[in-house]
Amino acid sequence: MSEAEAKWYCVHTYSGYENKVKANIEKTIENRHLEDQILEVRVPLEDVVEMKNGVARQVQRKMLPGYVLLNMVMNDDTWYVVRNTRGVTGFVGPGSKPVPLPKEQMQNLGIHQDEIQIGYEVGDTVVVIGGAWKDTTGVVASINKQKQTVTINVELFGRETPVEISFKEIRKL
Fold first, then answer.
1. Can you state the angle between helices 76-83 and 18-32, rounded to 10 degrees?
2. Residue 157 lies in a domain
């Protein structure tokens, strides 16, 4: 499946279960290796100033209480996984047919699909310039523009090991 087929969908959850649903879906993605089909799970938050006992404090509030956004390729498997996650009451759309959210709606929620220009490709040798793998050299095995990460192969204990690194943390050699 190509990343171009992925669209944003919205699921309704029990009130207060948004973060639990997000965690459950992310765990299922990991367990079933659906990383290439369900690319991102998000609970949109906004910063607001709240007055409590005469004191103003900055807090994060859910923009869409009772909803979780998913950037995914819609097929029978992904639909089943999401629909049967504990706390999910259903996809937003007429009947049982999920409807992708329009790009304008996603931009209103602060989610932009910018086209990212990167200066490397699969097979290039890169060095990690930040994070836990700083100063490690590896070969780019795959690029995920959606998640803004690359998977590089690094040598660990004499074996090639794939490691996912953010675009911001690598530089081409």
1. 140
2. yes
Band of pLDDT at residue 1, cut at 50, 70 and 90:
very low
Long-range contacts of 105-109 (CB under 8 A, 24+ apart): 106/8, 109/44, 109/63, 109/64, 109/69
Q: CATH number for the domain including 142?
A: 2.30.30.30
Report the CATH number that the domain containing residue 103 is assigned in CATH: 3.30.70.940
E strands within 43-136? 45-52, 55-62, 67-72, 88-91, 125-128
Q: Enter the pTM of the model.
A: 0.63
Task: Write out pLDDT tens, residues 29-51.
Answer: 999 999 889 999 999 888 888 88
Neighbours of 38 (CB within 10 A): 23
What pairing do the DSSP bridges indicate for beta strands 125-128 and 170-172? antiparallel
Domain count, the chain: 2
What is the three-class DSSP state of 76? helix
Q: How deeply is 44 buried, as exposed, middle or buried, from its count of CB atoms within 10 A (0-12, 13-18, 19+)?
A: middle
Asked if residue 59 is part of any domain, the answer here is yes
Residue 52 has pLDDT above 90, yes or no: no
C-alpha R_g of the chain: 19
